[in-house]
Structures are given as structure tokens and as C-alpha cells.
């Protein structure tokens, strides 16, 4: 990370407030699978049950150890439920369907669980052109709605892989659209990079190179993790 990136990160953290909103976008198969672990952890940290209700609604708000459903990641509804400020999108439905039928099916806004009918076949060009054309209108409409629900938007986080067709190609198109409409809002990219021994397709290195060249222009902060290194840490 260079001096310019460090300066931006320091200024971003200095201006960050607990009451500011963060929108999390999970794209592609890898991004959707990341959402499983992320929202399980976010709910645990903020004291939220899988159905969106608070674990300890009568906890003392002054107690620093009490779980706090802060508005950064959740929006409280009229029924005292907390709904994640998130969009989960994949070009084919099988992985997102696990959320729709899983333990956390009552947590999310179903309109923000977006799926297509066919995948990008691990092809950057297919994800960027063919699939993105079909997926962008509904996805960007969900992003706009989440932005409109925010009073003090702090950042938009995008979770995806560099190796998949949707994770690389469709994410690039989405980030271009977000950067065009919300240029002043920080875009934070959290990505999984393909490892030499963990490639699911021979074209993953090409997808990664093409994706890197595009998101380099649209992301303000990129947090990059190596897939192979993650496997070593978890085994």
C-alpha cells in the first residue's frame, strides 16, 4: 500500500462514525459464499438472531460488553427487526438458493437476493458483457434503494473473487456503474485472488489480470487475500 492509499485510509477512518451506513455487495459464487460467513459473524457481533430480532432487547446501552445492533450494517424496521444493508448477486441461482432456504432466510430483504438463469462459465468477457447486461438493471436498482435508505453513507463494500467469470467480469461492470453514480462515496473492494494450486479453471489467471486492470480505476481501497494462503490458514 503506497503513501496515497495510506493517507486516504487514515482520512477515511478519521471521518468514520458509528452511526454511518455501510452497504455490502457480495458478487458471484465466491462472494455469495463469503456472505454466509460474514453475516453469521455480523449477527453474532451485533446480537441479532437469524430472523433479524435482537438477542437482548433490554440490554443496558451503556454496557460496553452488550451487543449493539449498530445501523452501519443493519436497518431497523417498524417491526423491530434488523435487516442487513446488503445486496447478494450471482448469475446463476444455486448458491443464493442456499440462503433462501437456509437458517438466515428470514434475515435478508428478498429483493436484494438477485440471481440470473445461467452462469458466466468462468469467462471474464461473458461476465462483463452478456451476463452484466441482464443483471445490472436490477442490481443497480437495489443499490440505489439502499443508498436512499442511508442518512450518512460511509462506504460501499464489494466482496468477490478475481478468478470467476461473474466475480471478475460482472463485478467490474457493477463497480463501473457504482463509481459513475456515487463517485464521492468510498468503494472498498474485498477480494479473493486465485492461487497457483487452487485454480478451479485454467482461465482464472486471465480473469484476474483483466479484473485487476478495471477495478484498479474504480476501487478506493482493495483488500486482497490469496486463496491458497487462506486454505493453509484454515487447515
TrEMBL record:
What keywords are assigned to this protein?
A: GTP-binding, Hydrolase, Microtubule, Nucleotide-binding
Q: Does the keyword Transmembrane helix apply?
A: no
Tubulin/FtsZ GTPase domain segment(s):
70-235
- Record's SUPFAM superfamilies? Tubulin nucleotide-binding domain-like
Q: Would the keyword Membrane turn up in this protein's UniProt record?
A: no
Which catalytic reaction applies to this protein? GTP + H2O = GDP + phosphate + H(+)
Give a GO biological-process term. Answer: microtubule-based process
Q: Which GO terms describe its molecular function?
A: GTP binding; hydrolase activity; structural constituent of cytoskeleton
The source's domain of life comes to Eukaryota
GO CC, sorted alphabetically, is: microtubule
How is this protein organized at the quaternary level?
Dimer of alpha and beta chains. A typical microtubule is a hollow water-filled tube with an outer diameter of 25 nm and an inner diameter of 15 nM. Alpha-beta heterodimers associate head-to-tail to form protofilaments running lengthwise along the microtubule wall with the beta-tubulin subunit facing the microtubule plus end conferring a structural polarity. Microtubules usually have 13 protofilaments but different protofilament numbers can be found in some organisms and specialized cells.
Q: Member of which family?
A: Belongs to the tubulin family.
Per the entry, what this protein does is: Tubulin is the major constituent of microtubules, a cylinder consisting of laterally associated linear protofilaments composed of alpha- and beta-tubulin heterodimers. Microtubules grow by the addition of GTP-tubulin dimers to the microtubule end, where a stabilizing cap forms. Below the cap, tubulin dimers are in GDP-bound state, owing to GTPase activity of alpha-tubulin.
Query: What protein name applies here?
Result: Tubulin alpha chain
What is the organism of origin for this protein?
Answer: Echinostoma caproni
